[in-house]
Description:
Elements: E1 9-13, E2 16-25, E3 31-38, E4 44-48, E5 60-63, E6 79-82, H1 93-104, E7 112-113
Antiparallel strand pairs: 1-2, 2-3, 3-4, 4-5, 5-6, 6-7
Amino acid sequence: MAVSRKLRRKIVRLDRVFYWYVAPDYDDAGVHKLHILSEDKKFIVAYELEQADKPNWRPILVVMGKEFEGLSGDYTGYRRVLTPIWQDNLITPKLVGEIIDWCYSKEKDLILVNWMGEILT
């Protein structure tokens, strides 16, 4: 099933079409998150806004889709990974592109964390 394009912005990156939008996550106390997904819905991630401003906090990206470089696609459920610190006060297509590029990069250290940001062993 294709992605609904209503209220979503389109970005072409790595010769693929992605859609992104910002919306409150009511399952997470209404925190605003940037959602990025591929047209075929194999790549789905969510990134909480303004994580760079939190003291003593490393930003986390929630991987919801089966496609993410460095993680196997046979896992069911959400996975959380530490990310670089991006300037995330203002969401722009440039930031969305940086996140997509990082997700598909083969040269990154993947550190899995739990929902509290604690590193999993």
